[in-house]
Amino acid sequence: MRTSSNPAFKNLPKGGGYANFNYGQPAGAFGTQGQAPTAPQQTGRPLSIDDIVTKTAITLAITIGTAAATYIIGGAASWGLVFPAAIVGFVLAMVNIFKKKVSPALVIAYAAVEGVFLGGVSHLFATMVNPGIIMQAIVGTMGVFAAMLVVYKTGAIRVTPKLTKWVIGAAAGAFTLMLVNLIAGFFVEGGIGIRSSDGGLLAIGFSLLCIGIAAFVFLLDFDEADRAIKSGVDARFSWYIAFSLMVTLVWLYLEILRLLSYLQND
C-alpha cells in the first residue's frame, strides 16, 4: 500500500500477511527465504465502503454537534475553550496515530474535542469578521471534499507514487512554514507574514496553497481507503480511516475560514 500523507493511515496493515498485508513488517523483511510471514488469523469481517461511510458520518456528526453547542454558548466561554481543546485534540490525535490497536472511543473523543475547538474558533471569527463567514466556510469545505471525491472516482487525477511524494512534501513544507511563522511571531509582529491578520497577499497566497494541498491530501486518503477495502483489512480499521478524513476536513475548514476572513477584510 502506498504511503499516505495522513499519518493515521500508518496503522493500516501493509505489505503481506492477512489479506496480503504485512501488519507493519518492513519491505523485504520476509526472512532469509524471501517469503512473506504467515498471515495472522482474521478476527472480524473485511472492511467495506459502508463501514467507512458509517464511521465517518458518526465522527462528523459528533464534531458538528459539539461545535454547534460551543458556538451557541458564545462569548468568552466558547473562546476560552479554544486553547484547551486545541491541546487536548492534539494529544488525542497523537495517541490515535501511534496507538497500535484501534480505539473507537479515542476516535470519538477526538471528534468531540475538535468540535469544541472548531465551535470556539468559528464563534471568534463570526464575531470579529462576519457571522455569514461560517456557513460559507462549511459549504466551501464540503464542496472541496465532494469535488475531490468526484475527481478520484472518475480518475481525472491518478494517485501515483510521484504524486504522493509531491503532496507529502508540500504538506510537510506548509506545516514547517507554519511552525517557523509561530516561532518568529514571538520576536517579530506578524511573524514571516503568512498568517497576517490584515490579510496581505502573502497570507492569502499561503492559505490558497494550504487549501490546494488539503484537497490533494483527500485524494491520497481516498486511495488508501480504496486499497484497504480491496485488500480486505479488518472492518475495525474503518475508525482509523474516519479519523484520518476528519483530520483533513478540520485543516481544510480552518484554512477556508481564514481565507474568507482575509477577503472580508479586503
Automatic annotation (TrEMBL):
Taxonomic superkingdom: Bacteria
Keyword Transmembrane: yes
InterPro entries on file: BaxI_1-like
Spans traversing the lipid bilayer: 52-73, 79-98, 105-126, 132-151, 163-188, 200-220, 240-260
Entry annotated with the keyword Transmembrane: yes
Keywords, comma-separated and alphabetical: Membrane, Transmembrane, Transmembrane helix
Coiled-coil ranges (or none): none
Signal peptide span: none
Descriptive protein name: Uncharacterized membrane protein, YccA/Bax inhibitor family
Species this chain originates from: Actinopolyspora xinjiangensis
